[in-house]
Design brief:
Keywords: Cytochrome c-type biogenesis, Disulfide bond, Redox-active center, Signal-anchor, Transmembrane. With 177 residues, the protein is of the alpha/beta class. It has 5 helices and 7 strands; from the N terminus they run αβββαβαβαββα.
């Protein structure tokens, strides 16, 4: 019984500390890039985006590079990154590049309001079961992955918010290869 109380106490402390970190913009991840060793192909999926338009993994074939930003409505670095991503989307809209967002916290109403408020026009959607397994590989948001026209996850996964200039450099490099 005593051991059970200790374990519950430890779990409660960890939970409180992790929740406190979610709202603190000063918390920075030590890792900014992670390996794609476990990720070779983006899972096949078919769903509707937040505007009701059909989106599927077959759409990847229409673009040399698809950038997928995994974000949450609850985390200010994700929210602060939205205008930078919109600017990137506009800069590359005629360069065989697509930007998509996956809203991990499934807050459809909150996401729609945020996207409208920030003037975000690129595709955003909530994950379905097909995508859930992929998301289990990531424990931080924002996280950004890049997929080629064959649906293969490229060896470039970015963890944490980046500047427009940082993303611009990454996208230019990927499109040149």
């Amino acid at each position: 019984m005593f051991m059970k109380k200790i374990l519950i106490s430890i779990f409660a402390i960890i939970l409180v500390l992790s929740l406190g970190a979610c709202g603190n913009e000063k918390v920075k991840s030590e890792k900014t890039e992670i390996s794609t060793e476990k990720l070779s192909k983006f899972p096949e999926f078919k769903l509707n985006d937040l505007n009701g338009n059909e989106v599927s993994s077959k759409d990847f074939k229409d673009y040399d590079i698809t950038m997928i930003n995994i974000w949450g409505t609850f985390y200010s670095p994700c929210i602060n990154e939205l205008p930078k991503l919109q600017k990137l989307n506009e800069a590359y809209e005629d360069k065989n590049f697509r930007l998509m967002g996956i809203v991990v916290d499934r807050d459809e109403y909150g996401a729609k309001e945020l996207l409208k408020e920030k003037g975000i026009t690129y595709t955003n959607f909530l994950p379905n079961r097909d995508i859930e397994e992929l998301l289990a590989n990531f424990d931080e948001v924002p996280t950004t992955i890049f997929v080629n026209k064959n649906g293969q996850v490229l060896n470039k996964v970015v963890v944490g918010g980046k500047s427009f200039e940082d993303y611009d450099k990454i996208v230019k490099g990927l499109l040149e290869n």
